[in-house]
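Review form for a predicted model. The reviewer records the input and the model, then writes brief findings.
Reviewer: anonymous (R2)
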Amino acid sequence: MRDYPYLVASLPALALGSPAPFSPQDFLFHCQGALAAEDLAEIAAVLGGRAADGHSAAAQEWAAVEAQVRNAAAKVRGARLGVEAKPFLKPHRGYRVWLDKEVADALAKPNPLQAEMALDAVRWKAADDIAQQDARGLGAVVAFAAKLTLVARWAQMDDAAGRAKLDGLVEDLEKGAADSGAVSFK
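Model under review:
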């Protein structure tokens, strides 16, 4: 296990809901030369949403967190809809007892935006746990990368982008309905 104390010490503080100091791609670029090649590949996997492809304990742990969050959400949503969640659950390494409760609490929020923010707060807390296990090494860098993806995701959300996405979805639905002959919008 390699230590990267200079890199870890130079990482800026991140806060969920605040602007990212740089993009995930810029972070990966800046890690070149500071990380060993195989560790750089781990960071690329985490930043690309492919932590399960990583070989380090930290990347695998992040992948397990993501799987457990998704599984817990599927169970809560399935219970609400009367649908068995088991076919949708993905296997993962380890189990964080506190995580299922916090996911259920997050999904009990009064609106979808608050629920999503609360789910990402659960992920954030798990990333903090990963960083604490290897505070000067790859674990801390993986945790930072995971947090940076969360911050970057929230930074991309704004009313104009949301409206454009909604308009595109409605247009696709209308086109599909018109193409099938179900309805005409003319």
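Findings: The radius of gyration is 19 Å.
Further findings: The chain has a mean pLDDT of 93.
Recommendation: see findings above.
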